[in-house]
Amino acid sequence: MVKGRILKKMGYLADQQGIINRYLREAGGWDSHLLKCRDYILDKLNKYSPAVVTVLGSGWLLDVPLEELAEKCNTINLVDINHPPQVARKVKQYPGVNLIKDDITGGLIEHIWKSGTEITDPSLVKVPVYSPSYDPGMVISLNVLTQTDTLISDYLGRKGHSDISSLRALRGEIQSAHLSFLLKHPSILITDYSELIFDKDALFAQNELLFVELPPGSETTEWEWDFDNSGEYYKRKRLLFKVMAIDYVKRG
Questions:
Q1: The pLDDT value given to residue 26
Q2: Rounded distance, CA 63 to CA 38, Å?
Q3: Quick one: which of 71, 130, 126 has its CA closest to 100?
């Protein structure tokens, strides 16, 4: 179990709080994205009728159709490295819901924390595949694929690792390990894959967020997420994410 002080110093707690702050500040700008996430999950829930569902990156439950999951499934595992107190209180009304505090990088976060100053080449870091102690059933990776590698890369950057290619290689390994876990189970993936930065109405820059090729699934859906219109994330710029949802439950 990763200690709270480690999560605080590595920036995980601030990032989690930043998500809810930005959601509240955007005043409805996220609603379309969140609705599409929930609708996609419910479509797969109705299609496959799993008894057990595990949500990786449950966070504030903004994109989780919790009530419907609780009605249709016997067990719902909500997995995150930290569960806000508000979420812990909310889920008490659902007897089949388990809050699981876990590092879905398989212990990499604590390893990076302990070894950060000793790491000479991030690309040589061995990245484990998550191995839970519970039955995950159908797995939903929910807007988390590009988060963990970013936070680890940013932390190493603050520790003096400035070799962009080495950090990109590590980020690719983290994403690959996450995908390896998903492909071991019936799963769906919802992730951002590209960020578009606008200055007024003109495209200012575009950054790709994936460092691996996503395996094909049985169905793929895409949409756009108006992430930041207030110019807080990139000063005086508007940020939009391209999002992809992939069905890996039955791959043919």
A1: 84
A2: 6
A3: 130
- H helices, E strands: number in the chain: 8, 8
Question: How far lies 171's CA from each of 5, 34, 211, in Å?
Answer: 23, 26, 7
* Residue of 177, 191, 192 whose CA lies nearest to 141: 191
Distance CA 125, CA 55 (A): 27
Structure tokens at 112: 């990076």
Cα–Cα distance measured from residue 191 to residue 185, given in angstroms and rounded to the nearest whole number: 17
* Amino acid at position 50, single letter: P
Strand, coil or helix: what is 246? strand
Is residue 74 within 8 Å of residue 87, measured between CB atoms? no
Q: Give the residue among 115, 139, 143, 114 at the shortest CA–CA distance from 129.
A: 139
Determine the pLDDT at residue 232: 84
**Other beta carbons less than 10 A from residue 48's beta carbon:** 14
pTM for the structure as a whole:
0.94
β-bridge mates for residue 76, sequence order: 53, 97
**Residue 40 phi, psi dihedral angles, 5° rounding:** -65, -45
Taking residues 15-36, report their average pLDDT: 91
Which pLDDT score, from 0 to 100, does residue 1 have? 66
Q: Give the pairing type, strands 219-228 and 238-247.
A: antiparallel
pLDDT band for position 116 (cuts 50, 70, 90) = low
Cα 127 versus chain centre, distance: 17
Give the pLDDT of residue 3: 80
Query: In the chain, pLDDT over 90 holds for what percent of residues?
Result: 81
